Amino acid sequence: MFRRFLTCTHRRLPYDSNSAFTLSTVSAILPQDNRIFLKPQTLANHFRPSPTSIPLQSLIDQYKTSQSQLKASPISSQVSYFGSETREFLVNRYRESCCSEDAKELHLQIIKTGFDNDLFLCNTLINVYVRNSELVSARNLFDEMTGRNLVTWACLISGYTQNDVPDEACALFKKMISEGFCPNHYAFGSALRACQKHGSRGVKFGMQIHGLISKTHYAFDLVVCNVLISMYGNCLGADDDALRVFDHIENRNSISWNSIISVYSQRGDATSAFELFSRMQQQGFSTKPNEYTFGSLITAASSSVDSGLSLLRQLLTMVKKSGYLGDLYVGSAFISRFAQFGLNDYAKQVFEQMGERNAVSMNGLMVGLVRQKQGEEATEVFKEMRNLVDINLDSYVILLNAFSEFTALEDGKRKGSEVHAYVIRTGLIDIKHEIGNGLVNMYAKCGAIVDACSVFRLMVHKDSVSWNTMISGLDQNECFEDAVVSFCEMKRTGLLPANFTLISTLSSCASLGWKMLGQQIHCEGFKLGLDLDVSVSNALIAMYAETGFLTESEKVFSLMPEYDQVSWNSVIGAFSDSEVSVVEAVKYLLNMMRAGWSLTRVSFINILAAVSSLSLQQLVHQIHSLAIKYCVANDAAIENALLACYGKCGEINECEKIFSRMSGRRDDVSWNSMISGYIHNEILHKAMDLVWFMMQRGQRLDCFTFATVLSACASVATLERGMEVHACAIRACLESDVVVGSALIDMYTKCGRVDYASRFFQMMPLRNVYSWNSMISGYSRHGHGHKALDLFAQMKLKGQPPDHVTFVGVLSACSHVGLVDEGFNHFGSMSEVYGLAPRVEHFSCMVDLLGRAGELKKIEDFINKMPIKPNILIWRTVLGACCRVNGRNTELGQRAAEMLLELEPQNAVNYVLLSNMYASGGKWEDVAKARMAMRKAAVKKEAGCSWVTMKDGVHVFVAGDKSHPEKELIYEKVQELNRKMRDAGYVPETKFSLYDLEPENKEELLSYHSEKLAVAFVLTRKSGLPIRIMKNLRVCGDCHTAFKYISKIVGRQVVLRDSNRFHHFADGKCSCGDYW
């Protein structure tokens, strides 16, 4: 039997010498007080078993007594032949053996010495095989044995359990029962431990074993009851069963109390754990808490959200009094938990007071420092302790993580490179692949993605963590396409993606706008069962939102089985980014609060970003009040969001209050938000004062500050201020920045210097779509339609795809130069060539194009065929077109006016346009009716005015204005210009005087229009520079004609910016070619 067995193939499994079934447990008749076998797995880190040693001779005597009823004549003869000395030698020699060679030698000696039927030695051999993780050999020996006792069964069941083969342990236990053996407490304990390893799947069989135990005297055995507590505690939802077993124990020991406390601490039920601890203390000295008790309580305290810190501090005081603070296990637990809460001072204090330190305690302190982004301090701890403790491989992994949390990432990368060289030189990188993962992570987070890729390529063994780290690093370093490619390569290796893999890849898809690939990854997650993972669902919400598919984003959210705060914040953020769905964002915020979730700073930032576009003062005030209630109103990011909201709502006083309170918390966003608020509320002088104040303080202005201020200068056409800001940008070395460059082009075109804008555009080292759009719109605005279209052609040749704004500029250019057919071609190419759905502003441009060309019938057909409902902008464009054709087709104009008055009855512009349409056609009765309707609506028409900027300030004029200090000189100059213009052939165009007056009176009114007063004022000053005039309304036809004469008479260029466009008058001609 044994000679055949010696040739079998052995299968080695991991061996845990501390938990092996030792020789001292082999006797089935040992007193129950010798509880050597039991070691609860749930407290594996808490208990260090110290087996009770039993004299060898006692074991042999007990064994002989237990075998008195067996027919063992062969054994007796062999014993008498070989002698008890040989037998005792074999037992002493091999009872603690953990070596595979020893197992073979013992096996051989048993055969040679004739003890092959000696039950005690065979059990010993099984135990040696088990201890050496050679379970196949142990099972073969077990199957070949002619006689077995309880110890034989218990040894093998224990071996299967300790070597993580719970299925075999349970099956062998069932076979033991079926063969009529009544298990002892060792067999019961091992079988229960096997059920525990199965978790919730094994609890059913564990309960059956419990039922069997209850029929034996072991129902009151303390060891078995302790194992039952651990078994039930390890199964979800079986806490009550564990507590019932505990309550059933009459004489509890420390292990019993520690087991039940451990159950509740691992469940995160701090209240129950500490209540049990209080009961334990009431039991007296016999159940005095030890290091394992405190270890479980530390875990329980850290799981309490509300009182965790307080409990930890109280425990620290108690542990100090008990003298366990120097204990390695307790100290390490304290360090880890204090570090988890960010209390690194406490963690350091405990670390310094520990009597014994090891790599675990050092690693715990380093992990805490790394979590608090104190990478430099974590590195110092490693340097101080590396010669005092035995550094393990995990220490190097944590150290690499510390480098990525350095304040200066370049320093972190340099330190990381030194460690990289060390692990290569010592060969550690080949021993533990986690070090390779740490290097990839460190390089990626330090911005050295090329080095991270090099390490990753050279790694021999790559697990899922390796791929996840690489994909995440590529995504974080904006190498989005490489991240997606790496995901596909990972799948080809046969590794299954984890939730972290999908999250990073979905983030890259969102950044690339690749919705189709994102959907494929969604399907992949669905197949793997990861679609219901909360973090993956959150990533899907963000991906669909960023690619513009809010319906899918909302669908993902609605199908989630459970939410976390990130889920709610993600869906609120998704709707806040879409102007048309802002109300939905507010609804989700309310639902989040109704569901009992607390609002976080991210919640407030997202909702404030949403409501800022609504300009609802009351809603902003309510959200501000909530922020105060949740104690986050002093957070800089939320204050910045509030500044933006109040600024857009016109409550600049609230902005100033918040801004003044921020003092030391102000950042670049704060200053930019305040400046934007002033600009939005047309308080340009305060915005500029704030900019100068920033510069005087020596604060460096960023590109967004310059872009904001330049936008303000453009909005009010203050060329001088804009040029000053340009000079500041040059001094700040930001002139070549694409954002600042695009803003400069926009500013110069809106301030009338399209030549400066064109020159700057040609000098830009880098252009983006905004740069092209600003220049195209600038040419269009100045009447250079052909230049705008040529630039659009260049844009396409350079490979820059146009967007919706580009086509607004292109269609406006066609409108200003009368290119109707070309305008329709470009309009059609939006959807056919570029996949851009036309928006309402594009339809408005087409209506304007037809209106300027006098194609009123085509306008009506175009509006009737539009896929969208005409809005205020389109109807106002239609009414303006009817005004320009001298009141022809008043039916269309009346229809447009009716729609406008229905949609916007309080806007005076609508009444003015209707009145002008009637006046241009000489329908004075209808004019009177329109003006009467305007008075009944109690709306006021904006007064037409013109202004010029001189060295001594801005001078504003209105029609017939006589309030200016130099009015006499101005009116003299007007009369002089009138005489010279008449001599040159000028005839006043009285049709543009929209009042029912005599021709002479109409001519007089036309003579004193605000723009004519403005140009006369400039001509009273001696200068040869171009004259720049701004007007808040569209220039009338008579003034347009007069300015052509004036430019020729005075020999100076006149640049007039009205509400629609720029007119450049020079030598009797206008840049618009009289098509405007």
UniProtKB/TrEMBL annotation:
Domain DYW: 985-1076
GO biological process, one term: RNA modification
Residues in the signal sequence: none
Gene3D superfamilies named in the record: Tetratricopeptide repeat domain
Keyword Repeat: yes
Alphabetically ordered keywords of this record: Repeat
NCBIfam families cross-referenced by the UniProt entry: PPR (TIGR00756)
Record-stated family: Belongs to the PPR family. PCMP-H subfamily.
Identification of the protein by name: DYW domain-containing protein
Source organism of this protein record: Morella rubra
